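Exercise 3.2. Students should predict the tertiary structure of the chain below and write it as structure tokens, then compare their answer with the key that follows.

Predict this chain's 3D structure.
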Amino acid sequence: MAQFDYDLFVIGGGSGGVRAARAAGQSGARVAIAEEHRYGGTCVIRGCVPKKILVYASEYGHELSDAAAYGWNTGPVSFDWARLIANKDKEIDRLNGIYIGLLERSGVEVMNGRAVLSDPHTLDIDGNRVTARIILIATGARPLELGVPGQELAISSNEAFHLPELPERITVVGGGYIGVEFAHIFSGLGASVTLVHHRDRVLRGFDEDIRIAIMDGLDHHGIELRMNEEVGALARRADGAIDVTLKSGAEFSTDLVMSSIGRVPNTSEMGLEGAGVTLGGRGAVVVDRYSRTSVDHIYAVGDCTDRVNLTPVAIREGQAFVDTVFHDRPTAFDHSGIATAVFAQPPAGTVGLTEAEAREQFGEVDIYKSTFRPLRHTISGRGERAMMKLVVDARSDRVLGVHVVGIDAAEIIQSVAIAVTMGATKAQFDAVVAVHPTTAEELVLMKQKAS
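Answer key:
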């Protein structure tokens, strides 16, 4: 008789947990997974996928306007928020079903409920007690609350996907990925948007030229920017609107406040500390390079570890965990040089080091930069500009970072990331023949160093 009910029990049905459960199940291990909400996690249910659907929707209004310059008579147009949300929900339902099907076909027992550790090997799933030889924590993260009087009046991005209607005036608090993207979404769909951020620029941690370009894009789209400001209190008015008081003393009224000031690891009230698992800052599960916690047989992947909080990273961490534990191939995922995108309007894509990081690590660097109006907008008349930037090690000529803002930036950076990961040099970029006319060709045409 087996000592444990399962070889592996995964807590959390998001991207990292599902990948790990499937891969372990396909290896022949006895695997179970528990999820208290819906399978797919933040990305599929309340993050990347539904957000990108809303991004697409918000871009159509601009494109319809651009079409007139290209000879199209578009006539009167209108937008139906309820129809968009209904169609989005259908797609999320479909993906949720796909995730469950993939798990079941991999031999994984799928459970619905909240899993809590009773001891280092025992879990309680809504009253059902089971044991496991190995436990993987993949519980993701949750939105951080504003922490001010009236914070209950603010929604997070979770609720933004289920609004019954689109308010006329929306205030977004926070200038990270989520805040910037939703500011553009709401604005593109017709709302009057104010973005409040406690710093002088959005997207902390990104290259400064990306931050400047994204700020220009927000301003270009008519989004009111209240920088170096923090919300001090929210209060409901008799007419249903919300009064926003900033810590500077400034006040204004809005119909909806969405807080996007960050996310925290979703690890509270899970019995982790009682089982001996060490938690670090903000409740993050502390792990080593192999995703092992302070307890030898308990591992953690994804946003709950607060390393690099991106869906593809969680997936790779989940696979590395299975390779290490179930295939006897110790695999430590490399968190450096990860490409990412911000679906602003225009979007940004980045891979490798920022200029500041490169100067700190390598000393002398060469910078190549170009800003220009894409061909598409020379006809449309839209004032949107593109920015391309290469950060190069002056000694080795290796391209250390690539930063792009403009049409299809996310698609461009995915391909460029291959070259950067392989250690391509600026000379090798220069040797590539440009594809004309494209936005991306600028990456192989920049010859003059920036002053």
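Discussion points: The first strand starts at residue 6 and ends at 11. Residues 151-261 form a domain with the FAD/NAD(P)-binding domain fold (CATH 3.50.50.60).
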